[in-house]
Structures are given as C-alpha cells and as structure tokens.
Design a protein that fits this description.
The complex is a heterodimer. Helices cover 63% and strands 8% of the residues of chain A. Chain A is mainly α. A three-stranded antiparallel sheet of chain A has the order 2-3-5. In chain A, strands 1-4 form a two-stranded antiparallel ribbon. The longest helix of chain A is centred in the C-terminal third of the chain and has 43 residues, at 159-201. Chain A is flat, with a radius of gyration of 23 Å. Chain A starts with a helix and ends with a strand. By secondary structure, chain B is mainly α. Chain B has nine helices and no strands. In chain B, helix 5 (107-114) packs across helix 8. The longest helix of chain B has 27 residues, at 3-29. Mean pLDDT of chain B is 81; it is low at 98-103 and 169-175. Classes of the chains: A mainly alpha, B mainly alpha. At the A-B interface, helix 1, helix 2, helix 4 and helix 6 of A face helix 1, helix 2, helix 3, helix 4 and helix 5 of B.
Chain lengths: 225, 175
C-alpha cells in the first residue's frame, strides 16, 4: 500500500463522526431495552392475531387499495405469474393476508424485464426480511383506529346502546380499513424501493416510481378468526 | 435449560453487548431522537426473528447491524416515535451530546463520502466507521464479495482524487 493509500485510510477511519461513549445510565437503559423488547415482540405478534375485523367490509377496502396499486401499471403488458418465486406474502394490521404477485412482462430481450424476473427468485429472502423489518416498525404503534376496534364491547338490549355500539363498530371498521390502506401503500412503496435498489445494483437506472410499475397485482383476504 | 431459553439468552447477550455500538451506528446516521427509536425497533425485530440468530458472536453482531440498517433504510418512509425506553435513552443521550467534539477535522472527508453514490458511501462507512471487513459487508448487504470490493475501490479512487488533488502525480512518485 502506498503512503497515499495509508493516509487515505487513516483519514477515512478518523472521519467517523464523534459519538460520546455511553454513560452508565445509558448502558443500563440499553440493557433494559434488550429485555423489554422481547416482551414487545411477543405482544405485537399476539395483538396482531387478536384484532377483530369485519371480513366482507375490510376486504372491500383492501380491494380499493389494491386497485390503486394496480392502477400504477400504465402499460397493461403483464401476464400473471404462475410461479411461487414471483410472489411475496404479507399481513395487514387487521390480520388480513395479502399476496403481491410479481408479474412477468411479455417484452422479450428486455434487460429490465429479465432483471425484474430474477429479483424475487434470487432476492426473495432479503425482500421478505425487509418486509418483516418494516412490519415491526409499522405495527409497533397500534393506530388509534385499532384501539377503537379492540375496544368495542358487547352491549345489552337497550336500543340506544345498540345504536351507539353499531356506530362505534362502523367507525372502528372504517378506521381499521384506513390503517390497512396505509399499510398496503407503505408495503408497495417498500417493495418498489427494494426492486429499484436491486435494479440499480444490476446497473439499471430505474426509479422507485418506475419500479412500482413492475409490481403486479395485490390480492388480499380478510382474516376470519 | 431448553434450546429456546439458550437462544433467548444468546440474543439478550448479543443485544446488551452490541447495543451501545448499534446506538452509536444509528446516531452517526440520524439524529439522536430517531436513533433511540430505531434501536428499540431493531431490538424488537431481533426478538421476532430469534430463529435466525447466528450462533457465532461476530455473525450475530453483523446480523444485528443488518437489521438496524434495514430499519434505517425504512426510517425515512415510516419514522415514528413511541417507545418509552427509547424516550429515556433519548433523554440521557440528549443531555450527553451537548458537548461537541472539539477536533472534528473529519468534516471534509465526511462531505466527500457524502458525494459518493449511496451504495458506495454505505460500504465506506461500514468499513471505516463501524469496523467491518469487506467480506462482512458483502454478507450484510447480501451481494457478492467482488461487487463490494469493486464498489469500495471505486469509492476510494474517487475519494483519493477529491481529497488529494495531486494524488496521481504523488502516486507515481511513491509506487
């Protein structure tokens, strides 16, 4: 290594932004976080499974969302993928499950199409990992909507209470739909971003917006639990 | 002790051991407020994926940094603050960070790194700031070693030309 290389290495090493060493209280807090996060992780998985939804209505809302996503494909050149490698599944805050199909373009000898086709089959684990990570951050704070949904209690025969209950339930469903919609949109953006990054690594300059067009349809099914 | 207990014990140890470095890594990439939340999210995700926890301590460290890096990538889209303990860590770190480092002479170099394409800058930072080898970075980014080496060399070449304008002349003299 030349002197210049050594000097450059030293300058790069020493360019690391200064971060003060953690104090004892900080170390203690971090150690507590390490334990507490186990409880948070367990709570998140069970909370998600318990969330009630009204299947028919929520599925309707999700289809609106997926229609919006599908509308991002202006070329109408896609044919449905028939391989598991070309799909990735995820779950919405309501518990509904969705399947993002990566559809195969009919364009022949197109480097982007070829790369898109290779994406999930070679990077599937990484994509699912990114989705799982995003999943944690997206649901870490249950939206107020979900709290409303969870808070709906059984009522007696009083017509006024029944009416109020019905209204609260309706609002809960609407709010839950909104949470799912936001989640779906975020997931679409994340997948598009992952695809864009992959294509970029292959030397193909495709923006996130453009990458989103290569994602096919999303189908979701409500959770009947 | 059951296998599950052993895994949980290993993860707790890995989080406690690497927590300060993860927090420092996140603080170097974002502000202290978000770094605390990102650390909390990283830990939650780690607990959700205990089955993937590598046995080897160094591999576990890389695994945790990969999770943290993914959260950092997602952060710009979905940044939120909500964790109580993160709030406490934020408060402690905020009180601590009022004293700036006096000899911050790396600014020029950091600016130069900032001009690199994001994938190259990421590799340079992971190598020179976090102390990972190129092979480890390749594992973390899930791309071939040769790709990482190529990008790193491109980055160094660019940095050399930016930081030492007469480098080609001097290089000739030293080689």
């Amino acid at each position: 290594m030349s002197e210049l290389d050594e000097e450059l290495t030293q300058r790069l090493d020493s360019s690391c932004p200064y971060v003060p060493a953690p104090s004892e209280p900080m170390l203690s807090t971090i150690a507590t976080m390490a334990d507490a996060s186990a409880t948070d992780a367990a709570r998140l998985s069970t909370t998600r499974a318990r969330r009630p939804i009204v299947s028919g209505l929520i599925t309707g809302a999700i289809l609106v969302g997926s229609a919006g996503v599908a509308a991002a494909d202006p070329f109408d050149l896609w044919s449905r993928a028939d391989r598991d490698d070309d799909a990735v599944s995820f779950q919405l805050p309501s518990g509904a499950t969705c399947r993002q199909e990566l559809t195969v373009p009919v364009i022949q000898n197109d480097p982007i199409s070829d790369a898109v086709h290779r994406w999930l089959s070679t990077q599937g684990d990484q994509v699912e990992s990114a989705l799982a990570d995003a999943d944690g951050s997206l649901i870490l704070e249950p939206s107020p909507a979900v709290h409303v949904s969870d808070a709906v209690e059984p009522v007696g025969d009083n017509p006024a209470e029944l009416a109020e209950h019905a209204m609260r339930e309706a609002y809960a469903v609407l709010e839950s739909m909104r949470a799912d919609q936001q989640y779906l949109e975020s997931t679409h953006l994340l997948l598009a971003s992952e695809l864009s990054g992959y294509l970029s690594a292959q030397g193909l300059d495709v923006s996130v917006d453009q990458a989103g067009r290569y994602l096919g349809s999303v189908t979701c099914h409500g959770d009947d639990r | 002790m059951t296998t599950r207990d052993a895994v949980e014990e290993r993860l707790t140890a890995a989080l406690v051991d690497n927590g300060p470095d993860l927090f420092a890594y996140l603080r170097r990439r974002t502000d202290v407020d978000d770094a605390a939340d990102l650390l909390a999210e990283t830990m939650v995700t780690a607990w959700q994926k205990t089955s993937s926890l590598p046995r080897d301590a160094e591999q576990a460290r890389m695994w945790l940094f990969t999770i943290a890096r993914n959260h950092l990538s997602n952060h710009q889209r979905q940044g939120r603050r909500r964790n109580r303990l993160a709030h406490e860590l934020r408060r402690l770190a905020g009180a601590q960070s009022v004293t700036a480092h006096a000899a911050d002479d790396g600014l020029e170099v950091r600016d130069a790194i900032g001009t690199l394409p994001p994938d190259q800058a990421d590799i340079v930072r992971l190598v020179h700031w976090e102390g990972f080898s190129l092979v480890q970075v390749a594992r973390m980014l899930d791309i071939p070693d040769s790709t990482v080496r190529g990008r790193y060399q491109l980055a160094r070449s660019h940095l050399r030309s930016v930081l030492t304008p007469n480098s080609s002349e001097a290089s000739t003299l030293t080689t």
